[in-house]
Specification:
single chain; 27% helix; 2 helices; alpha/beta; globular; 109 residues
Length: 109
């Protein structure tokens, strides 16, 4: 959706991958140049064997040059002690972080 709909100004995926397993041309990792200035917060679990964290980690690293003028619009959090199903504490933190992120970039005065 971030690639196709320019109305989207912020995203906060939790335990997701920007690199799709099926070979689809819409996979976000193939369109780095189209994402800025969307504010993107990704949160993943280091111990996840279903959706390896390195996909999102590498994605954020690759996006860094595109966000040089507004680095605050790009953030990555990884939970080192969680599997795919985040621990209760990490789950609560992930949703708090997502809510703060979206509020910061969606609420305008």
């Amino acid at each position: 959706a971030l690639i196709m709909d320019k109305r989207i100004v912020a995203a906060a995926p939790v335990v997701g991958s920007p690199q799709w397993l099926l070979p689809r041309p819409e996979s976000p990792h193939l369109h780095l140049e189209k994402l800025y200035p969307v504010a993107i917060l990704s949160q993943n679990a280091t111990l996840d064997t279903h959706i390896p964290a390195h996909y999102a980690r590498d994605f954020h690293q690759a996006l860094t040059p595109y966000y040089m003028q507004s680095p605050e619009r790009l953030r990555y959090i990884e939970y080192p002690n969680s599997p795919h199903d985040l621990t209760r504490t990490d789950w609560q933190q992930a949703w708090s972080e997502a809510a703060r992120w979206l509020a910061a970039f969606l609420i305008t005065e």
